[in-house]
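Hi R.,

Here's the chain you asked about this morning:
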Amino acid sequence: MNESALRRALLVIAILGLAIGLGIWRTGGGPLKADTIWTAATLPVVMALTISIVRDFWIGRFGVDAIALVSMSAALLLGQPLAAVVVAIMYAGGTVLEDFARGRAERSLKALTDRSPRVAHRKSAAGTEMIRIEQVAVGDNLLVRAGELLPVDGILLGASASLDESAVTGEPLPVRRSAGDMLRSGTVNAGESFTMRASALAEHSTYAAIVRMVAAAQTVKAPFIRLADRFALFLLPATLLIAGAAWYISGDPIRALAVLVVATPCPLILAAPVAFIGGVSRAARAGVLMKGSAALEALGQVRTAIFDKTGTLTIGGAELIEIEAAPGRNVDHLLQLLASLEQASHHVLADSIIRAARGRQLALSHPCDVREHRGAGLKGQVENMSIAAGSRALVLADKPLPGWAKSGEEKYRDEPVLRVFVALGGRLAGVFTFGDALRIDAHDALGKLRSAGIARMIMLTGDDGVAAKRISALLDLDAIVADATPAEKVDAVEAEKALAPTMMVGDGINDAPALAAATVGVAMGARGATASSEAADVIVLTDRLQPVADAVRIARRTRSIARQSIIAGLALSGLAMIAAALGQITPVAGALLQEGIDVAVILNALRTLGDGHLWRA
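And here is the predicted structure, written out as tokens:
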């Protein structure tokens, strides 16, 4: 019989004993006295609790369950078996309630592990075979059918795929992936079948990492919880002292028993663990992985946030910033023509240009007679129109810039951007500017971090000062540190951490030392930066900054709820102890009162599973 079943059985025995005893007492007795029935129903709980306390003591752990043991034993010795069996019901009921609360708090996390990929379809010259996920090797070509889980991390070989990433990132809508994109295990094929190439073994893939972190989150105690354990060591002697004083002053041992009964410290035992497990679970549903409850608690205390620039505050690639069009030219038509031409290019900007056009729902044409000038640009025909796109030297040669284009040239003169000049029929028709663009949600995310209690925000980047200032001008930052080497980033983090609890948010391999140095390291892990993810305490699985703000709010709320539960529970228990010492509460009434306190504390701790006042993305 497992421990959970044993606890339920003990509760049933105690309840049945109470009911049978009450029945005998009401009918005036019989062969068996009610007191004997109540004593017999209490003893199994006493024995099980004694064994549990001895076992814990043997491994160096002392719990305040000893108060419950003392109260039941004292009730039996003082001839109060009714009080003893009520305490037994309250204690056994509390343990069953704890099992329920933990199960409820862990359900969201357990759902992740229960749906782990188990098989894969490997393609070979002989056809397609089903294999266990442990047999997948790096480089294997795998077929993923409609509705199936992706077995391992890999690279998309097909033209496109539609994936449901909600279980991993928290994103509710399917996302579209293109050939060459990184795919993560645990996501679901929401479209047609496609082929992918395995880039990691199952044990090193995203979903396996999630499972490991879930296991850690359920076993690692936060400092807050350990503090509650240490505080519990003082509760038993304090309770015995108050009970002894009540007995000595009043001369009534029943008062001492009542004090022991109401002192059973379930708020201290249950509140913090249930609250923190609930917080980790809630964060996982939002696409944020916490490496244990200690990381969650630390995040709830940060006052300073340091952000890497490239890939964190910004998208991290060459994105379209601005289109300047000649008078009379339509911006969308220019983008359509340029994207059509770039379909024939292998340049790094081609994907960004085509993606921008598709983002505006523009239909692309087939380019003809395309000639690529390496490092300079393209020339060709699109829709029977001669088009040239690339550097100013290629497109304009020695011709001067027309007046409409001069303001843009001056604006971006010293900026770290790429400028693509587009000519139609030999005349300059537009200029496209590409650079590292600010994330769409960056401004809102930082504002929400401010409202969550982050007092100081800093940009820490290895980029030059000009690029850093261009981005910082769009954000509410307190300081900028540019041109920083990885070692200088660590020094900057250490300096801020000396002043206040600090989180570092980054995504690149060069951010790993700084993430490890911070009070809490937060990795933007959507692009698979393994080194930074391993160094971090918190991993954001979606490619957005908003979940960082959500994670801070979840952590603050979780810590607050845990503190509320402990303080309120102990305060109520303390008041009940005083009332019992003054003779205002009988042992039976005290047991019922304490159970009411336990239920209230656990229900309050379970609020961490809810949304509270989290923002919607």
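One quick note: Residues 317-436 form a domain with the Calcium-transporting ATPase, cytoplasmic domain N fold (CATH 3.40.1110.10).

Cheers,
M.
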